[in-house]
Each structure stands twice: as structure tokens, then as C-alpha cells.
Amino acid sequence: MSNEKYLPYAADAEESLTDGELLVLRRQYERELPQVRIQTKFNYAWGLIKSRAKQEQKLGVALMHEIFNENRERQRECVYYLAIGHYKLGTYEDARRFVELLLELEPENAQAQSLRELINEKVAREGLIGLALSGGAIALAGIAIAALFRRSK
């Protein structure tokens, strides 16, 4: 299945903010330090998760985890973006855990369903690549051992 099928629902997993958009969110967050309002923190975490830079994505996931753990009324919103953040970071088991949590709460949630498909496709694709690489390494090792065996005769 192609990713285009999911873009209307799981676009957050593929789209990034511009540097300018992220800068606006960062400045707002920094202006409010040390007592950042929860909405400002959420917006900044969301923007970081949508970044192209892994370090920014990691910070976004960390901030989103803080909101998730500290504010029960915001947990539902956080779950979806935590799933996306972990997906973008390549921590697929964590991404699955959060998307499944959201689907337990909202089984008909189209965003969560399409994100689950993206995660599953990525895991399957990377699993196949991993199998191919390990299979190739085993084949090379077998060739090397056979060559050594022939030389020793």
C-alpha cells in the first residue's frame, strides 16, 4: 500500500514544519520560561515532533511525554503525537504502543488506524531489509568458508 492513501489521515507522520514556523513556536516557549503554559508547551512539542531534525524530534517527544504524564486532560492529544514522534524516531514498538492505546479509546479513529498501517508497513519493510542483509552476510560468510576450505585441500 502506498503512503499517499494515508496522507489525509496520517499526514503528521510525513509533513514537517518550516524553520520559520518552528521558530515562532520556540520563541513563544522561551518567552514563557520558566512557567510555560501547557498549550504553549504542547504547541512547541508538536512542532518539534514535526521537525526534520532527529534531535528536535527527540526533544519534542520528551516534552510530549511530560505533558502526557502531568496533565490527564491532555493525554488523548498527546497519545497520537507520541505515536507519531516515536514513528519518526524509528522506535516502532513505542509508536505501536501509543497508537494501540489510542485505538483502545477510539477504535474508529481514522488517523490512528492509518498511522498503525504506516508503522506496520515500516516495520515489515525494515524487517525484510534486515532479513535480506543478514541473508547476504550469511551467504558471503559461506562463500568465504568454502574458499578457505578449497584452499586447505
Keywords:
single chain; 153 residues; mainly alpha; Serine Threonine Protein Phosphatase 5, Tetratricopeptide repeat; 7 helices; globular; disordered N terminus
Task: Please summarize what this structure is.
The chain has seven helices and no strands. It is an all-alpha fold. It has one domain (3-152): Tetratricopeptide repeat domain (Serine Threonine Protein Phosphatase 5, Tetratricopeptide repeat), CATH 1.25.40.10.
What can you tell me about this protein's structure?
One of its GO terms (cellular component) is mitochondrial outer membrane. It holds the Pfam family Fis1_TPR_C. Has a role in mitochondrial fission. The protein has 153 residues and is mainly alpha-helical. It is 78% helix and 0% strand. It is globular.
- CATH fold-level assignment: Serine Threonine Protein Phosphatase 5, Tetratricopeptide repeat
Low-confidence stretches: 1-8
Q: How would you name the CATH homologous superfamily?
A: Tetratricopeptide repeat domain
Question: What is the H/E string?
Answer: HHHHHHH
Q: Report the CATH C-level class.
A: Mainly Alpha
Query: Main beta sheet: strand number and arrangement?
Result: none
* CA(first)-CA(last) distance: 52 Å
Structural class: mainly alpha
Number of helices: 7
In CATH terms, what is the architecture? Answer: Alpha Horseshoe
Which radius of gyration do the C-alpha atoms yield? 21 Å
DSSP strand tally: 0
